[in-house]
Every structure is written in C-alpha cells, then in structure tokens.
Amino acid sequence: MAKNLLPIDALIARYLREGIIDAGISYRQLAAVTGMSINRIGIILRQEPPPATVGETGQLARAIGLTASELLARAEREHSERPVGDAQPDPVSLDDRREQRCERASDETLRAVASQDDGLPDAQDGDDQVNYDHGDPGPDDPFHTA
C-alpha cells in the first residue's frame, strides 16, 4: 500500500514544481541532471503517492538552486502557520536569494544537459514536456528504470 502524502509533503512538492517552472527546466532535463526517471519526477510534482524521499527532494532542489534543508525549512514554516488540513502554500513569490540561485542552477543545468547527446530529436517550442496521462513509458524509454 502506497504511503499517503502528508500536508508537508504536498507543500514540498508544490515548492519544487513552482521552482522548476520558474527555472524553465523540462522533465527531460531534470531526469538527465538528477538520474531520476521522468515518470518518478512527474509523480512527485503531481503530488501523487508515494511522496518524494529526502534524497529525491535534494536532487530536485539542487536542480533549482536550493538544498533539501532550505526547501524543508520553508515548508515547515508555512505548515506551522496553517490550520490542520490546509496544505496550500501562500502565493508568495520566491525570495531574491532563491531566485538568483535558481537562475545560476538553471544556467548550469541547461549547459550540462545541452552538452549531452541523448540520441533523441530536439524538441520544438517546449514540446519536451511529457504528458503523464498515458501510463508508464515502458522499457524502451531511455529514462525507464526497472
């Protein structure tokens, strides 16, 4: 039986998703940088169980210029200020320090990913976003993990 997401898990996933969108990093790029499967990244960012492990949180946070500790501290602060059962993060823009680090990490990530030839055609106009409504990509997918 899968572990359900706790409110703090949902906050962490939302902050990760927010940072990844702000950084303009695709799931394919995240997979290349973190070593995680695209499917697992999607599960985490869609807030589906099981929640991200500490290691997965750290890998994704590092891709957007944060540490797992910083991400968890932000989620804990907000979680402690909310009534029980309310896991919606405040719609506050990210602080300047995080934005600067996110830009640096995004540039480094994009350079690292751009220098790798994955043998796949390059996406046009953001087509490298993956639709996760069609199940597991299967064993022929280069990011598939058994």
TrEMBL record:
Signal peptide residues on this chain, from the entry's feature table: none
Compositionally biased spans, kind Basic and acidic residues: 74-84, 94-110, 131-146
Stretch list, region Disordered: 74-146
Residue runs in coiled coils: none
Protein name, as recorded: HTH cro/C1-type domain-containing protein
Organism of derivation: Leucobacter allii
